[in-house]
């Protein structure tokens, strides 16, 4: 029974497919015919897709973006190891020409924006009329008044002094002098520095060749009444010239004496060397003469730099130029006298 049913179903299905295959519906495509077959392209043709020719790329004046397909395609062509086809070389040439033209345009644009200064251009004349008409501006000075001229010794006063100690410039040291006269206030009415006041100063070493004066800085003054005042003023001569003059020892004998003695010994050696040439028994003095000349040169180099020494004796008269205003209001006061 089951076999009979299967046979019936199979026969029924087969008959149905035969019936459907025999049926046909006519359309417009049956009248137009079969469609034409498209031409198949090879892989090499796809890899070398033609782009715009060289002339079109040059005249655009714009360079493709690095991320564009055309730029990436040309970059791959330039980096491959296989020989390029003529079409690929044209594409690369067009890209290079476009790149050079773009760089040149950028350089011209930069030069137009920021031109370099012309060094050969004439500079303005400092002696022109415009420069000469500009006056020199000097800062003005404001006048002031001495509070009490009875208790001031103003800048520029002279102090007469007698040296109590001698001065030698070989070594730096201290010195002292004594006022030889009374010093009054600016208006000349009040005695401020009594005769016999002591002034202490200091001097430095190092007198150079050709100098005949030594600089002394007088630092502090002390009066017989016990008043002490910082002075810090330079010493001068009686005419106001800075520095103190004295006897200058140039040390000529020390500087040149040893060199002259060695040179004399060398000359004596040369004389006896020449004299011995006439004798049959010759004695050679060449090494001795050469050594003597070398010793003379060394002695001269060591002694030529000896500096001169200035001597100024005690008891000599000097002057001190007051370099600042001296105020005595803190130690003196004025009272009416009957």
From TrEMBL:
UniProt keywords, alphabetically: Cell membrane, Membrane, Transmembrane, Transmembrane helix
Region (Disordered) residue spans: 34-53, 103-130
Biased composition (Low complexity): 103-113
InterPro entries per the UniProt record, alphabetical: T4SS_VirB10/PtlG, T4SS_VirB10/TraB/TrbI, T4SS_VirB10/TrbI
Main location per the UniProt record: membrane
Residue ranges, compositional bias (Polar residues): 44-53, 120-130
UniProt keyword Acyltransferase present: no
Subcellular location: Cell membrane
A Gene Ontology cellular-component term: plasma membrane
Membrane topology: Single-pass membrane protein
Domain of life of the source: Bacteria
Name of one Pfam family that matches: TrbI
Family: Belongs to the TrbI/VirB10 family.
UniProt protein name: TrbI/VirB10 family protein
């Amino acid at each position: 029974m089951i076999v009979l049913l299967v046979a019936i179903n199979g026969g029924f299905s087969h008959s149905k497919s035969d019936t459907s295959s025999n049926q046909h519906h006519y359309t417009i495509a049956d009248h137009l015919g079969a469609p034409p077959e498209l031409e198949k392209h090879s892989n090499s043709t796809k890899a070398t897709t033609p782009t715009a020719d060289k002339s079109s790329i040059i005249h655009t004046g714009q360079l493709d973006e690095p991320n564009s397909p055309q730029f990436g395609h040309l970059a791959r062509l330039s980096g491959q190891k296989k020989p390029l086809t003529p079409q690929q070389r044209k594409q690369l040439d067009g890209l290079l020409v476009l790149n050079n033209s773009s760089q040149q345009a950028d350089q011209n644009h930069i030069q137009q924006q920021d031109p370099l200064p012309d060094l050969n251009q004439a500079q303005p004349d400092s002696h022109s009329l415009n420069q000469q008409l500009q006056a020199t501006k000097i800062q003005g000075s404001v006048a002031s008044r001495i509070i009490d001229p009875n208790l001031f010794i103003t800048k520029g006063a002279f102090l007469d002094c007698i040296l109590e100690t001698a001065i030698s410039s070989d070594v730096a040291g201290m010195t002292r002098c004594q006022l030889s006269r009374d010093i009054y206030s600016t208006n000349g009415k009040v005695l401020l520095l009594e005769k016999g006041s002591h002034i202490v100063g200091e001097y430095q070493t190092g007198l150079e060749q050709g100098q005949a004066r030594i600089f002394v800085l007088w630092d502090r003054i002390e009066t017989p009444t016990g008043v002490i005042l910082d002075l810090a003023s330079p010493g001068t001569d009686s005419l106001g010239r800075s520095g103190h003059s004295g006897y200058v020892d140039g040390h000529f004998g020390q500087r040149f004496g040893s060199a002259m003695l060695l040179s004399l010994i060398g000359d004596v050696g040369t004389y006896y060397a020449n004299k011995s040439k006439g004798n049959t028994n010759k004695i050679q003095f060449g090494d001795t003469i050469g050594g003597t000349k070398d010793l003379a040169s060394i002695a001269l180099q060591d002694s030529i730099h000896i500096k001169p020494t200035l001597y100024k004796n005690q008891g000599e008269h000097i002057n001190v130029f007051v370099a600042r205003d001296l105020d005595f209001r803190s130690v003196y006061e004025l009272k009416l006298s009957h």
